[in-house]
Amino acid sequence: MAGEQGHVDVDLDNDIDKVVDEELAAKEAIAGGDGSGSKRKPKKVHRQSSKENVVASGFIHGPRSWKNSRRSRNGYGRGLPKKGGAGGKGVWGAPGSELLETYEDVNDPNFDNENLSNGDIELKAIGKLGIYNTFTQILVECVGSYFVIVIVPDVSHEEIKKKVDPIILEYFENGDTHEASIAIAEAVPKQYRDVLVEQVIEVSMDHKPSHREMTSVLISDLFGHVITETDITKAFQSLLANLSDLILDIPDAPTFLGNFIARAIADDCIPPKFITITKEKSDNEVFQEALSRADTLLSMKHGLVRLHNVWGVGGALRPVKALTRQMNLTLQEYISSRDIEEASRCLRNLEVPHFHHELVYEAIVMALEANNVQVEEALCNLLKAFDAAVFVTPEQMERGFLRVFDDLPDIQMDVPLAYIILDRFVDRCHKEGFVTDRISEKMPNRGRKRFVSEGDQQFIKNHKAS
């Protein structure tokens, strides 16, 4: 076997030498021919024998067809491709090799020119909070035994407010603080949570008292999970500083802001010393008015308990008895002052347009119990004003009158002249034009009950017997 192997190597080497000699002779004939046409004798090229080559380098020369072969050329390979398939032109590389790369190609379409490792960004460490640069903010948070680097994009306050407004309006519709907290945590970075609190309070000032109550509840529920005491403090300080601008659009802004501050203190979101410390920062009149309002609410008897209803409880959250009592007080105050605007404001603050028929019912009953022409005229003017402003809809008005018609037998037990007074009041309202003919036609008439004496009763029995 050894002899055969040596014989093959010698033949292979001789074939290669012949090919090389022929090529050299052809090139010499073309390049060095003279005018006589004689050929120059080719120069002898000394080549190393194959055996010496194998012994010296362990490399076996092969034919030219082996040039592009991917097999190992040392004679000891298993026939596998070189470098595990990662070598050669146009090859993607070994699977998973992209994860081991520690550099980025500038000509790569996916190259990030804002990468922190390319030397174009200068980082500055600020205490233990994080690292900041001109493009992004990097926060270092400790999670368990690991440090997590969170890159937060730098956004303006206007962009934050645009993100917050839809969340606030949706919360005013459904009242779900849990859903609002999830949306806020995803949309607003931690370093901008004070802008969030400021925007929530500012938006609620343009809405109803029930929405301001919902805002106070939201701040209380988010405290300790999504927002911190520092965020709430910064928000109130910013609102106090901009109070002169807010009062142009919201005249009651100092009162509202004072209520928010007092409520936040009652909910243990900010300390009571906030009022004392903040009062020393400005001598502005509206600035001091808001803080004085908060201080007054906290100083009254059982102030912390009463502050839970500082915005009132409107809508469906308030019991029916409480709404009825509030409407009755509104009517009594109107009879004393005859101020229709104040009565409208009080009724509007209750936020129960579906329950306005109760106001109509209470007004008619109050007119029956008073049995006074001046009171009947005042209540008629009030209902007429509510109907003209469509503050009380025709359906609610009709429903209130029909309820009185149904309960009139019971009302007569307390007011014997109820039928007479009601007929007079309905006629007055019909002349004013806000009571329709349909209501007037349904006005009950008192039937005359004839009491039969014993003599008449005996006469009737005898008449029937005959």
TrEMBL record:
Task: Please list the residue ranges that the record marks as compositionally biased, kind Gly residues.
Answer: 76-88
Q: Which gene encodes it?
A: AUGUSTUS-3.0.2_04932
The similarity annotation says: Belongs to the PDCD4 family.
InterPro entries reported in the protein's UniProt record? ARM-type_fold (IPR016024), Initiation_fac_eIF4g_MI (IPR003891), PDCD4 (IPR039778)
Give the UniProt subcellular location, in the record's own words.
Cytoplasm
Q: Which domain of life is it from?
A: Eukaryota
Q: Which GO terms describe its biological process?
A: negative regulation of DNA-templated transcription
**Domain (MI) ranges:** 159-280, 322-445
Q: Where is this region: Disordered?
A: 27-88
- Predominant localisation class: cytoplasm
GO terms for cellular component: cytosol; nucleus
The record's section on Pfam families has: MA3 (PF02847)
Please provide the record's keywords in A-Z order. Cytoplasm, Nucleus, Repeat
The identity of this protein, by name, is: Programmed cell death protein 4
Query: Spans of biased composition, class Basic residues?
Result: 38-48
